[in-house]
């Protein structure tokens, strides 16, 4: 395999765009990875509590997916097929139907968009507009849906929004669940939709994440999600759940909304859907809304064949019965307990998220950064989120063994102790 | 590996969105592919003159790339790393610098965007707006740059434009080279840019493809491209060449603009950049314009590690010396000769494109479809492009052996003979 | 003078666009008007509780303004001067400075925009964007600011918004004071502005009416207006008060915000500013924001000379001392008393507005229409407003003598009695 | 009449916004005006070759209009009536029908928009979008249609376009007749409309001025106008002629397009429609497109009653027979002769415009400004237009007696002689 011997040690600084990001925080060079561990070219080993921002819910290089992928490549299995029929796509469709849709009583058509979450969101927003003949999409404070211009309009983060230097359009912003103390956000939505003079144009769609990953692990209550879904229906709008980060088991069930009594009109998926970290995205569409013409929304890499191979294994292996789901539940409870302990070091902290998608608002971005820095120096990759990066978030692979989780938590607790005891070191960050 | 035995024969019709497209024309099920051939699950074999719309310039499952990729996976080489430093990314950067940039005297920073061409275009447009503080991007008639909302604004095709049901913004449309008989399109551009009252806002960028693939294989003259570049510079705009389809050797050189005497400020690449058909995209940026902040334009799958592995092999194998380039040149001449013969059957035809990116405007979409249908029935995958799908285009892998090319051409000539002799059959299409 | 003898009785139906509106409700032909009365060509006489939607705060054909205008015309005083210097403009500027600005300690530059309120708003929004380099203007639910595309984006009414068939842009909509029971709207604004990830782009301006005339006579509390002003300042946005309908004494003081402890950066005026009902509009700008270049925002009829003549008289006559203001105060109290009586007939009613800008939400548009219909049949012109036209509003000239006011109120009470007693007649509307 | 005695001599500089414009060039104070003359408060007298930018086609204070207006005011004729029926509106509608529409075989509905040209254009654009369900309006290089955001999108001038600091939308810009040497602009339009992949969205409307006043007195050929009209029809778009500046006789006939063999779907009028310089605007709509709902496009000052009085007189007095039209024709020929003489002083000059709407491109804005400055110093008000203000334009009242015209021309010729002889003085401007 290729080695780094020939590469200039300064090649990243010299040749990679300033847009590069995570590598600045984790300034080592990774070569291989397995399960819950990342390995560097210097032989160092890190526990991974980031998991490709939830793209590696099943850990790195799962042996079954790996074997299937090697078999496929070895047999000259087709690698790129545009959106032609392939045996592996058939297998994936069948598996998704049998393992995911049927047991949950769901009936969606699968649209393979370009293999990025943003692309799945763009397709969803376009489709909702086409179906309804309306232009307005309601999105929520702190939402993150991608940075291409259509999706970016729905994303709340000002740093990303300003990146485009063009006013974003087609989206009305309303407060997410529990956004403002003492304000019932669903009431705001209901009032504005019900008032012909509110200035909120009749919506094509209302789109939300049930847990806002980038927005700071804000978890919506089932009541809120349900009411939003009902209001969407009442007002002729499609209800879109962006399950790109919260889906694929991250909150405890395959879809993050399974236990909320809602059936979205459109669901977007990406990140862990391939199982192996390969680029793949999916837009699930209720049959009655499946009105795109052939290639009306297209893209060269829609339908990544290698990803179909691993995705099929992932679905069969982890979702054919309840075992995995039950494991996540137990680990989630463990996570809650340990984060509660961790949080105790930070006065005024807030517990955030649910399932294996939890974190702690430690009060400031500086404190959170100091925690993550300590962790990384002690063998743990972990990151922040939230409007001010003030939330230390745990995104461990769902397959992480309990003992490895505990090892990571121990490092976090050390970090909490050190950082909370020496606030002056934080200012130096 | 996975077989289709378990999949319902109607699974595509039942579960895949109506947005599916190529599979409608090529209604078979592909399983494997090698070099210039596609194989179905029924044992049929097709010559591939489509090459994943130019994503497979080096053919299917190239043995060297395949070996490197299997090695990487076998060794648990990292599969997903967000934009962290990895050994394989270092190797790709180094190779791109040494093999591509240096010999051509070019000095670009590499930005790994989300792995779709559209995402590379979105990044390019956003960056140009950020750099200049202007909003307007000038794009050309019949251009195709993707279907996410930012890129879609620059795309000409009305079928795609209407897909979004939201007026597209931030783009001024001007005629491409030779768009209107007797009109010098560069004169139109020059006049409009030089007139403070033209209504064309000062541009952030002027963006073009040197050959418009989807637009009908319209090849711009070097004079036009050069003048556009000069006008961009004169008026403070960035010059963007979208080389997603025309790049990676398709026109005869690595970049499609190499022999035109221009150095764009930004170049977008995707399709064949991974060499193997894996999703990957790249935005090349002159250092002085490399002003995105960390993760200002981001995405989970930016920097597809598997693609870096195969891309590095592809660059080293095909671009370390002139051999490959010379082969393309010879094959291009052969292609021109055979297409001239083919075109002879269609009165009023027009020869289109250049290099291995050529085709024939046969007069109507119906005729072109009839040709392609005949070809497919006789073992050749070939497609159309153009505003009315009136251009039969040849996008064979650049590595296709001459004898296989000739076999494909022979089928095309048969098709031309049959179709041109029986125009009534076309109406039946 | 021109008479109607030559006009076809069906000329309106035959030749005037379907966009015509008030004439449908008040289907008579007016010829002359004096003080608080409108006269028809059939010799009928109506008390005017509409006053040109607050464009006739000083009543019809005020004798002093009339004399000045006739003098001006008789002397061949200039009628149209673009924005050249004229003696009458000097006089108006001087008077506005001496009578309005100085006594209130205000220091504004006067911009004479095209003579419509919408034009004054367009100028204000453009200017705020130019001053701040930002694009976003925050406007409120139920706001009405005009129907040209820039102003329309800030207007809440969906009927008007849909009239343009183009998505409106550049405006974020937030709840007005007391919009939702139990929600402090200023808290919503504060939270969204203070959160870099809220999705509300940094605002160029926050714009509001202190009383929303078209929106249903919603009166903001001084606390709300003040907090909005402070938040605007804190976040680098200009604070715009649209005083087009609420200004010129309607709420009791010349500016509607005088007693609220705020000094807006920009104030828009129109409607009664000419005093005589002549088209005129004004945008008041703090000196430090007076950055439009010459004619950057222009228009042929900016600076209506005839209107300057009457406006100067109006300012001198009504605002040189407190007499008029005190009269309005007394009449306002009378109005409140009589509307309270009126409202008593409608269970669940709400009292709306303040000053001589009050009305009653009678529960439904049907009821309100029935009231107005009865009134018109009994010699009183009165109209509705609100999202569902559910508010019966009184917009009598501020100069209306008490006995005429009482006469109008008496008719309103009759209407209330009749309509509330026979709800079945309402359904027939 | 009001006098200036009380006004501070610096009141304009101190209190009027920097947006003021013409007053900078013509820095005197006008008091009265009659026919073709403007008079200042210092007793100076100027010949008016600007005529309120064509708002005073019948000269200042025409005695018949003046008398009718004084009669109306004296009789307490209604001054402001929203869009209620009034006797004077009936009279105007009847007169417009009898004098203008019938003799020309035209059948339009009249919509009284807010009394500015921009407002009439906003209404036209909104209506075309509503009628067609499309968003795109095609406008032309160097067009001027107003500066409110909807109209501004159709205006070409960058100084005005940038005034809004918000990207303008909904308009595609194409070259006007004879815009580029050797390019047939109608061919460009035809090609782009006929190509589904051109990137020009199916238009709601195509809008043009037959002579572009602000754009530099560019006169379209009848062939161009006719072809544009035909292309609009063919492609399902409404054909809008903006006759605000070129209409009301300026080019020789009441409508500027009368002799071109076209019948626009919508015509916008303003400027001289009131006859007296009073604010008034009009949108003429073919019955089948008269689909605005009541007040869907509204405005307080729509239907300026005083303007109806004078407009009715103007139509009866000047357009009841051919006399006036014939006079304009003769004066136009005189104007052409004199301008040819004038132009002779400027090498490389271009004759511009037609009818009483002519001027000379003297090569540079500096030269044109020097000419106008000399003229003003010698008793003649005259202005420039064009992208670089390089056209000296004559906009004399159509009623100007020949001897006054000759006097003005004489001054212009003097200016030409002086300025062309002393080019160094121009640099000093």
How would the blueprint of this fold be written?
4 copies of one chain form a homotetramer.
Chain A: H1 11-15, H2 22-25, E1 30-34, E2 37-40, E3 45-48, H3 51-54, H4 63-74, H5 87-101, E4 108-111, H6 117-132, E5 136-140, H7 149-152, H8 158-162, E6 171-174, H9 185-194, E7 203-208, E8 211-212, E9 218-219, H10 222-234, E10 238-242, E11 266-269, E12 282-286, H11 305-319, H12 323-343, E13 350-354, E14 357-361, H13 365-377, E15 380-381, E16 383-385, E17 391-394, H14 402-421, H15 423-427
Parallel strand pairs in A: 3-15, 5-6, 5-7, 7-10, 10-11
Antiparallel strand pairs in A: 1-2, 2-3, 4-12, 8-9, 11-12, 13-14, 14-17, 16-17
Helix pairs in contact in A: 4-11, 5-11, 9-10, 12-14, 13-14
Summarize the structure.
Chain A has 429 residues and is an alpha/beta fold. The first copy, chain A, has 15 helices and 17 strands. In chain A, helix 4 (63-74) runs antiparallel to helix 11, helix 9 packs parallel to helix 10 and helix 12 (323-343) runs parallel beside helix 14.
Q: What does this entry look like structurally?
A:
4 copies of one chain form a homotetramer. Chain A has 429 residues and is an alpha/beta fold. Chain A folds into 2 domains: 11-62 and 322-428, Aspartate Aminotransferase, domain 1 (Alpha-Beta Complex); 78-319, Aspartate Aminotransferase, domain 2. Chain A is built from 15 helices and 17 strands. Chain A has helices at residues 11-15, 22-25, 51-54, 63-74, 87-101, 117-132, 149-152, 158-162, 185-194, 222-234, 305-319, 323-343, 365-377, 402-421, 423-427; strands spanning 30-34, 37-40, 45-48, 108-111, 136-140, 171-174, 203-208, 211-212, 218-219, 238-242, 266-269, 282-286, 350-354, 357-361, 380-381, 383-385, 391-394. In chain A, the strands form 4 sheets. In chain A, strands 4-12-11-10-7-5-6 form a 7-stranded mixed β-sheet, sandwiched between helices. In chain A, strand 8 (211-212) and strand 9 (218-219) form a beta hairpin. Chain A is globular, with a radius of gyration of 22 Å. The model of chain A has no long low-confidence stretch (mean pLDDT 96). At the C-D interface, helix 1, helix 2, strand 1, helix 4 and helix 5 of C face helix 1, helix 2, strand 1, helix 4 and helix 5 of D. Chains A, B, C, D: This is Diaminobutyrate--2-oxoglutarate transaminase. Chains A, B, C, D: One of its GO terms (molecular function) is diaminobutyrate-2-oxoglutarate transaminase activity. Chains A, B, C, D: Keywords: Aminotransferase, Pyridoxal phosphate, Transferase.
């Amino acid at each position: 395999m290729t080695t780094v011997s020939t590469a200039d040690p300064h090649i990243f600084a010299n040749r990679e765009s300033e847009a590069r990001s995570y590598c600045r925080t984790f300034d080592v060079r990774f070569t291989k990875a397995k399960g819950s561990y990342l390995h560097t070219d210097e032989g160092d080993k890190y526990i991974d509590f980031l998991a490709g921002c939830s793209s590696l819910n099943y850990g790195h290089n799962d042996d079954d997916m790996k074997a299937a992928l090697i078999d496929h490549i070895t047999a000259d299995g087709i690698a790129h097929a545009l959106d032609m029929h392939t045996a592996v796509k058939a297998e994936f469709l069948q598996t998704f139907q049998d393992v995911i849709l049927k047991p949950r009583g769901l009936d969606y058509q699968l649209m393979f968009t370009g293999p990025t979450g943003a692309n799945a969101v763009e397709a969803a927003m376009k489709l909702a507009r086409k179906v309804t003949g309306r232009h307005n999409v309601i999105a929520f404070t702190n939402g993150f849906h991608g940075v291409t211009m259509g999706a970016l309009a729905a994303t709340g983060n000002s740093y990303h929004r300003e990146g485009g230097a063009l006013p974003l359009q087609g989206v009305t912003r309303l407060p997410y669940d529990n956004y403002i103390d003492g304000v019932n956000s669903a009431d705001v939505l209901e009032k504005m939709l019900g008032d012909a003079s509110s200035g909120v144009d009749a919506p094509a769609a209302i789109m939300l994440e049930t847990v806002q990953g980038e927005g700071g692990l804000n978890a919506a209550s089932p009541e809120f999600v349900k009411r939003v879904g009902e209001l969407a229906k009442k007002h002729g709008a499609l209800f879109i759940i962006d399950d790109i980060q919260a889906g694929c088991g991250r909150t405890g069930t395959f879809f993050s909304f399974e236990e909320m009594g809602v059936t979205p009109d459109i669901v977007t998926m990406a990140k862990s859907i391939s199982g192996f970290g390969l680029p793949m995205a999916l837009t699930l569409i209720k049959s009655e809304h499946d009105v795109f013409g052939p290639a009306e929304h297209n893209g060269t890499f829609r339908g990544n064949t290698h990803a179909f191979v691993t995705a099929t294994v992932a679905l069969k292996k982890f979702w054919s019965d309840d075992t995995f789901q039950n494991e996540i539940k137990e680990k989630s409870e463990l996570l809650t307990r340990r984060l509660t302990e961790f949080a105790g070091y930070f006065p005024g902290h807030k517990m955030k998220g649910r399932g294996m998608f939890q974190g702690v608002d430690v009060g400031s971005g500086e404190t959170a950064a100091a925690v993550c820095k300590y962790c990384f120096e002690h063998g743990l990759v972990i990151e922040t989120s939230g409007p001010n990066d003030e939330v230390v978030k745990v995104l461990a692979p769902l397959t992480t063994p309990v003992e490895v989780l505990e090892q990571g938590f121990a490092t976090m607790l050390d970090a909490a102790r050190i950082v909370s005891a020496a606030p002056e070191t934080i200012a130096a960050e």
